[in-house]
Amino acid sequence: MRLGTKLIHAGIEPDPSTGAIMTPIYQTSTYVQSAPGKNKGYEYARSQNPTRKALEDALAIIENGKYGLAFSSGVAATDAVIKLLKPGDEIIAANDMYGGTYRLFTKVFEKFGLKFHYVNMQDAENLRPYINANTKLIWTETPTNPLMNIVDIAAVSSIAKQHNILLAVDNTFASPYLQNPLDLGADIVMHSSTKYLGGHSDVIQGALMMNDPSLREQLYFLQKSCGAVPGPMDCFLVLRGLKTLHLRMERHCSNGETIAHFLLNHSKVQKVYWCGFEDHPGYVTAKKQMRGFGGMLSFALKDESIEATNKLLSGTKLFALAESLGGVESLINHPATMTHASIPKEERIKNGLSDSLIRLSVGLEDVEDLVDDLKMALES
Ligand code: P1T
Hints:
It is a single chain. The protein has 380 residues and is an alpha/beta fold. The protein has helices at 3-9, 50-62, 74-82, 99-109, 153-162, 175-178, 213-226, 232-242, 245-264, 283-289, 306-313, 345-350, 367-379, and strands at residues 67-71, 90-94, 115-119, 135-141, 166-170, 188-192, 206-210, 269-273, 296-301, 320-321, 331-333, 358-361. The strands form two sheets. Strands 1-7-6-5-4-2-3 form a seven-stranded mixed sheet, sandwiched between helices. The chain has a five-stranded mixed sheet with strand order 8-9-12-11-10. β2 (90-94), α4 and β3 (115-119) form a beta-alpha-beta unit. It is globular, with a radius of gyration of 21 Å. The termini are far apart.
């Protein structure tokens, strides 16, 4: 079955009691048992919920995995993966990634005795000096947030496998429409379902997909023991979002391409970070492992002053100044003070994330209107 068909049918069965074609929102906290332990597979809704199950089955299928687990946020999904580890274990993480992931690693998990190394993974060989007997996990994003760097998942996976290290890939920016990390050797795929999977900026949610049954058991144990589960209404919203992922992504990609070229050719723009340009350092890898380049891009103005950057950030009308991405509407964001504010300035600048960087999540509006909006803001 192809992706468009999977997105619409995966995990969905007509409701057994009524025939409802859409999975109902099972808004319940518990399930009645006919005798202790005698139940229909559902005991308590932190552990199981039929709306969540339909979503989790769909999540697995769309990432070509065997198992899916849904969490109350993307960060909660990441949190569960790190809880697979124990004090003394070491993690190699990408040096460019969502600021909230960095905050979780540095501010929450370091104090529990985990050691993180932040490495530029644009060349997988850069990992080798950081690998030792304690290395248990490699954590990466590709394309990265917000610099749009590309990591060669197959190359990183081959190094991880040589050393028996788990590889987790945050696939939020690409979505399963553009890239399937499990097919490229990743052990765990993570999503902030808040973004493209939900697609309508109306839900916070996260997901993990995997093939290994023992990994699934450990992560399910963490999901129910730590309790960061999404409610049934939110599961319904993501299930509904999934059904149009392929159509939305097609338009995100084409609008993203138009905006990337518009900015590249604008006299006030210094640099555009978009992995579809042939001279992007990750272009060849992106072509190999992705089916398109998506709707995310960043750029900097030639005038890198705070005044010019702020004027643009508050000068657009259609691009709303807001955190998040992947919804139907276009957003503009200032990573240094918004999504990546929790990364110390020195660290951020060292990794190429300057105060003048502006990030766009290109939405599904008519692209001519988006171009006009940016033109107006750039030229006013
Ligand atoms: O917000 P939440 O659903 O918890 O997801 C966290 C997360 C994880 N991974 C990536 C790549 C992300 O971009 C995010 C959330 N990012 C934003 C809110 C943002 O504007 O970048």
